[in-house]
């Protein structure tokens, strides 16, 4: 279809690549190193603008569908996968040491990414082509469908391992887990036991929708089959609206402000936010300006 777009567009080592192989399908390939650590830069200059571009293009097609009265032009689906040149990681989660030092990371960066995917206006399929740990698993849970290798060609697990290294969960993690899985036993197994699920276990417990005997190409092929089947459900334009209602309680919990605020904490958070603005668009007058 159209040429691939990389993000950031000016980078020689882009964080991700966006392709549009079919009229109704877009694929985001995460390419932040080998294990796709979900950093502030990766999210703000890679994932979020790529999601915006997919929605922008789909809405153009959806508008054409309304004008031409051709409903099929409004079909749409998005696949998110790990880098295609390996079969070890979908995402290895956060850069934890950096994340806990950034008071804005969860409320300003990570949680908005989760809510963006959770309420995306077209079906989103996670093609999990390797391990999905912690924040990487949360990214996949925000998607509508999850497809994973069956682990026969190479070991792969999904796991929330924070309980094992003493990291407190943000509200968004617990809210998303409750929104996706109503069984308290599964919630306990994921959150409090930090169970490392094999693909077969994850499929049996409903974390995954399908497992695939193969590596990245076969996983993406299976994800495309799901995308082909469900993309028609985007054509009426209400997929995202229904999800807003379906996950209303989840979204309210994810948006809760949990930071303790005083003048020093407020100043640190403001400086962090301003530095992110400079990162995205430094402008000619402020190339050398940074708050410390």
From TrEMBL:
<dbReference type="InterPro" id="IPR029045">
    <property type="entry name" value="ClpP/crotonase-like_dom_sf"/>
</dbReference>
<protein>
    <submittedName>
        <fullName>ClpP/crotonase</fullName>
    </submittedName>
</protein>
<dbReference type="GO" id="GO:0005777">
    <property type="term" value="C:peroxisome"/>
</dbReference>
<dbReference type="Pfam" id="PF00378">
    <property type="entry name" value="ECH_1"/>
</dbReference>
<dbReference type="InterPro" id="IPR018376">
    <property type="entry name" value="Enoyl-CoA_hyd/isom_CS"/>
</dbReference>
<dbReference type="GO" id="GO:0006635">
    <property type="term" value="P:fatty acid beta-oxidation"/>
</dbReference>
<dbReference type="InterPro" id="IPR001753">
    <property type="entry name" value="Enoyl-CoA_hydra/iso"/>
</dbReference>
<comment type="similarity">
    <text>Belongs to the enoyl-CoA hydratase/isomerase family.</text>
</comment>
<dbReference type="GO" id="GO:0004165">
    <property type="term" value="F:delta(3)-delta(2)-enoyl-CoA isomerase activity"/>
</dbReference>
């Amino acid at each position: 279809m159209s040429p691939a777009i990389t993000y950031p567009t000016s980078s020689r080592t882009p964080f991700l690549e966006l392709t549009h192989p079919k009229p109704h399908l877009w694929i985001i390939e995460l390419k932040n190193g080998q294990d796709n650590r979900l950093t502030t830069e990766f999210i703000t200059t890679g994932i979020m603008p790529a999601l915006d571009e997919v929605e922008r293009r789909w809405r153009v097609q959806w508008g054409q569908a309304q004008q031409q009265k051709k409903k099929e032009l409004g079909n749409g689906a998005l696949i998110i996968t790990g880098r295609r040149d390996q079969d070890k990681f979908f995402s290895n989660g956060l850069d934890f040491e950096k994340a806990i030092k950034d008071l804005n990371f969860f409320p300003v960066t990570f949680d908005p990414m989760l809510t963006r995917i959770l309420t995306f206006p077209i079906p989103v399929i996670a093609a999990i082509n390797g391990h999905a740990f912690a924040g990487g698993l949360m990214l996949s849970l925000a998607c509508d469908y999850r497809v994973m290798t069956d682990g026969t060609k190479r070991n792969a697990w999904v796991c929330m391992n924070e309980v094992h290294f003493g990291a407190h969960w943000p509200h968004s993690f617990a809210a998303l887990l409750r929104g996706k899985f109503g069984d308290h036993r599964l919630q306990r197994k994921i959150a409090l036991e930090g169970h490392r699920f094999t693909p077969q276990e994850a499929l049996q417990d409903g974390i995954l929708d399908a497992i695939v005997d193969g590596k990245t190409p076969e996983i993406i092929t299976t994800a495309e089959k799901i995308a082909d089947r469900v993309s028609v459900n985007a054509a009426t334009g209400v997929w995202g609206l229904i999800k807003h209602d379906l996950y209303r309680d989840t979204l309210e919990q994810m948006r809760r402000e949990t930071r303790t605020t005083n003048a020093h904490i407020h100043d640190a958070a403001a400086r962090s936010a301003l530095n992110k603005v400079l990162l995205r668009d430094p402008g000619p007058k402020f190339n050398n300006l940074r708050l410390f």
